[in-house]
Amino acid sequence: MPLSRLLASLAASPTQLGVLVEHVPAALALFDAQGRPVLHNATLMRLLGTVPARVQDIRFLALDGTDVAPASSPVSRALAGQTIAGEELQLRSPAGSLTKARVTVIATPDAGGVLMIADAASAAGAELLTREILGIVGHDLRNPLSAIRITAQLLVKPGAMAADRRMTLSKRLISSSDRMEQLVRNLIDYARARVGQLVQLRREPLDLAELVRRVVEEHKGAAGTREVKLETRGDLSGGWDADRLAQVIAQMLSNALRHGEDDGPISVSLDGSRGDGVSISVHNGGRTIPADVLPGLFEPFEIGPRPLEAPRRQIGLGLFLIKRFVTAHGGTVTLQSSPKEGTRITVTLPRSAPDVTIG
User: Fold this and answer.
1) Which of 232, 289, 339, 353 is the most exposed place for a label (fewest CB within 10 A)?
2) What is the DSSP letter of 345?
3) Distance between CA atoms of 261 and 341, rounded to whole angstroms?
4) What are phi and psi of 31, to 5 degrees?
5) Are 72 and 62 contacting, i.e. CB atoms less than 8 angstroms apart?
6) Percent of the chain at pLDDT exceeding 70
7) Range name among 70-74, 133-137, 195-199 with the lowest pLDDT average
8) Helix (H, G, I), strand (E, B), or coil: what is residue 112?
9) Which tens digit of pLDDT belongs to each residue from 210-227?
């Protein structure tokens, strides 16, 4: 689609366009053929301290600190037909300090265009995080894949094998494939969230105790010698999405097993004594989470504190997806942690409620 048509279609929906512009994680300005800003976000104002009469008037500096002549500015060159994508320059902040930025301009002489200025340090951090996450994904997929390969090689060896040994190896195959499936599913769900795809629930009558027992049973291999205690109380029936709730419970258990004490039990409590809803609570001992870190853990790619020498071995999507799926059910999730009480994550769900639209 030509840029002029794209801008025209966006301009026809000013409310949606305004929301889009404000949520872009960079300074953004849409300008007309003369370079006059017709729409900008608050980030641009914070970065420049003012909105220029023309975007060509924004004073950039080269990386060596020399001024960039107006005729050589990114906007001027873009309007002359050049492609400006992620060009590294500097800007002088309202306080006088220099900020390294990546500048992108999409422009046509007859229709104006779009100017985007991203903080280069943030962009570099995002690239580093992306590489780190890809490394984690590669590591986490390689381990179960290796286990599947080795187990399969044992199973196909000629000769008799005891039935109990064959059963153990078969369970290992299932467990390893489940780990891979969960990782891939989390990445797919995150990708859907990033493009604004809604959470669609398939509600059905469920016995929550039965669902949780099944998930707990599936995690016995990961628990090793640790005990997973399950306590139930009250009426645990309701209308929920079985697959999404299974993901929520599985992630709650995985977090507790990963961060809990090596020899400490995990407690799972289901409470249906309230008439209008139920709660699911998972508790573990072990290292606590500082209070100032707790709120941010529900954001994507955030993980709890770890020793400085310890490599990152988690993507940090678990709590983000828990909150996303619970909110879609009309419920809430809380996380508490203290040296005395340990760490407890609690999900509260209404038995039946209209789905909440989560983009």
Assistant:
1) 339
2) E
3) 13
4) -130, 160
5) no
6) 70
7) 133-137
8) strand
9) 999 988 887 776 677 788
Burial (0-12, 13-18, 19+ Cβ within 10 Å), 350: middle
Complete DSSP assignment for 102-118: EEEEEEETTTEEEEEEE
CA–CA separation, 64 and 343 (whole Å): 50
Identify the CA nearest to 208 among candidates 263, 281, 157.
281
Helix, strand, or coil here: 116? strand
Mean pLDDT in the chain?
Answer: 77
Q: From the centroid of its chain, how far is CA 269?
A: 27
Residues 349 and 355 sit within 8 Å (Cβ to Cβ)? no
Buried b (16+ CB within 10 A) or exposed e, 286-319: ebbbeeeebeebbeebebbeeeeeeeeebbbbbb
* Token couple for 354: 């209209």
CA atoms within 13 A on the CB side of 81: 0
- Among candidate residues 326, 323, 334, the one with its CA nearest the CA of residue 350: 326
Owner of token pair 């153990």 = 168
Instruction: Tell me the C-alpha to C-alpha distance, in Å, between residue 324 and each of 180, 191, 356.
Output: 21, 13, 10
Q: What is the mean pLDDT of residues 267-279?
A: 93
**Which helix (H) or strand (E) element contains residue 276?**
none
Asked if 41 and 17 count as a contact pair (C-beta separation under 8 A), the reply is no
- Hey, which bits of 41-176 come out as E strands? 60-61, 84-92, 98-108, 112-119
Q: What is the pTM of this model?
A: 0.51
